[in-house]
Amino acid sequence: MSREYSRYPLVGVGSIVIKDGKILLIRRGAEPNRGKWSIPGGMVEPGEDPDYAALRELREETGVNGRVIGLFGIYQYVERDSEGKVKYHFLLLDYLVEPVGGTPRASSDALELRFTGLREALNLDLTDTTRQLIMDLLDSGFKPCGGGFIKYVNRGSQSH
Question: Phi and psi at residue 6, in whole multiples of 5°?
Fold first, then answer.
């Protein structure tokens, strides 16, 4: 199934890794939002548990192995084209992940990787969902369901 102009919203996952008070970010190598900074993540494969998908994507993009602590929040990304048609629609399950090994390195869909302070990260060219997630982390701390359910973070979506 194509990610662009999909018939249904697609399910993605992200890994929120904090080490020494800094969050792990990658610079995206693929659309949407190529070149922007975000947490590591990707799509859930058919039959795959979302928490496992978050760990798989983390390992593939960064070389970091992790252990899921819990779900932080669910975020929605909707992008419309110039005609108002939905080009991308993702529901993103973002998990808190404890790093347990591996050597951090950018790979797969990541152009770069860095650990950065939460407030400092807000000065980067972040994806809309990552910016909202970091603001939620600053508000609620590093605890499960601190981000709430469902965060609508861009103009292309409709909030309730």
Answer: -65, 150
User: Which residues belong to the active site?
Assistant: 112
Q: Residue 136: inside a domain, yes or no?
A: yes
Number of separate domains in the chain = 1
Consecutive H or E run containing 117: strand 110-117
Read off the pTM.
0.90
CATH number assigned to the domain comprising residue 98: 3.90.79.10
**Angle at Cα 126 formed by Cα 122 and Cα 128, nearest 5°?**
105
Q: What is the pLDDT of residues 77-98, one digit of tens each?
A: 999 999 999 999 999 999 999 9
* 80 in Cβ contact with 87 (< 8 Å): yes
Query: Is-contact 23 39, C-beta < 8 A?
Result: yes
d(CA 42, CA 128): 16
The helix/strand/coil state of 100 is strand
b (16+ CB within 10 A) / e for 89-125 = bbbbbbbbbebeeeeeebeebbeebebbebeebeebe
Q: Token pair 């609620």 is at which residue?
A: 140
- Provide the 8-state DSSP code for 37: E
